[in-house]
Model the fold of this input.
Amino acid sequence: GTTLRLLQHWRDPETWEERRFFFCQLEAVETLIWLTEAPPGERQGIEVPGDGGPFTRLCAKMATGSGKTLVMAMVIAWHILNRVANPHDGRFSKDVLVVAPGLTVKKRLAVLEPSDPGNYYDTFNMVPSALRERLRQGRVLIRNWHVLNWESEEQVARKRGVDKRGAKSDAAYVKEVLGEMASASNLLVINDEAHHAWRVPSESKIRGVAKADIEEATRWIGGLDRIHRSRGVLGCYDFSATPFVPSGKESSEEALFGWVVSDFSLNDAIESGLVKTPRVVVRDDGVPDARSYRSKLYHIYQWVRDDLNRKAESHEPLPDLVTNGYYLLGKDWLETARRWAEVGQATPPVMITVANRTETAARVHHAFVTGKVRIDELAVPDRTLHIDSKVLEKAEAREDAEPVDEVERDDAADGEDEDRPARKQTRQEQAERLRVQVDTVGQPGKPGERIQNVISVGMLTEGWFEIVYVFDGVVRKYRPDFLVRLKTGRALVLEVKGQDSPQNQAKRAALDEWVRAVTQHGGFGRWAWAVSRIPSDLADLIYKAASGHAVAGSP
Done:
């Protein structure tokens, strides 16, 4: 059958002699295939919990950088080709709706459309040549989740104005959301970064979870419910590195989606070499008495917590420890920039700051551009990107991008006439320019190619997997024990902390196994981990673990 041909093609050693699919990608797609096509007798006793909604959801948990977009393409090819070959087989669909968490990710998911010039089916030879034309009989629609938004009867009643029309019916809503695909039935839905899409409890309030996050989840899943009522959702596949149901508690206490059927975790990705080895780098030269900074820089937040958690003007100086920490990172950045220039790298390395609040980000930006960090190369204003999160969120909420190139050409034309004042950009144009810069950092020939210093608030949003990250200045509440650098560039944190509890004991046991695996793997150096209940022991712990190697601590 069609599925067998695909599986044989994906595992053909001659076809994939030079570039094979990762085993975790094959494991994920094969799990979804088995749950769909295996005979009932083989699946006896296996019940995958749902989310309480009217359609089935299955989730593939895949660490960032392990290639979940490729798995999405494999799933789409599997469904479309089977439906075309067997039009009456109700297990498959040739109409696919892909929901993205923002405009940046939406644009990058265009590779899932068979008609896209850079589609993954052709780029990765994903489908046997004899089946390529059949694939084009399917339809793939990619939508930003914001398009799923709707107004309830209550919201419509509160509106002021002459428009007295009521809330849209499900049929009208679906026609607006799906466009040309509105007549399709039994759609396959794929949720990218599906940790945004969870079913909100009836009380709609979760202590510690932001109202905006609850609103997003409500609109995302509620929109899919409306599509299901009108046209039918055959099934939903979720993809995420962190598919947790928010509880407002510590992350270790949050529950994974009950419908996770394939789990390729960060530890697995590290052990298999799909992500770069975690490390903490502390330079011993460059500042007076650098030895005394060593232990403090490993867990910097405990020393600067009070200063960074207050409302402050942007011109107020950062704590000396933070400023000197940036200087040390800046020296490493200079060395990396020199090496990159020697080998002809087209773009500079990028230093990235993830701050705990808006005021802190503003102070960091001010410290750089006014020379307080004493690294002149990182003080150039037009090569520093200070991200306004609110502006960026508005740009990400759009369904389609503004043509920034057209704006730039208009600006250039304005500059040719010296007597005519330069046209002032609208807020919408400014927001889109910021989004494009953020999206293209590190990409030659793009608006963000010259950026070398990025300063943001909160964790960086999805869709940054193509950027080359080099250094991360983490100044926020959660102290990282490891900074994890992925081959694709994403920065992650691995940490063990807190009081003794079954969860923390399990985490430490898992970390112990991981450390042994890394130590035994050639080329990674010697690794160790330990627990300290006395903060003053931390420096000694680090020293005993051997200079230059990473240590995990639980202060």
The radius of gyration is 25 Å.
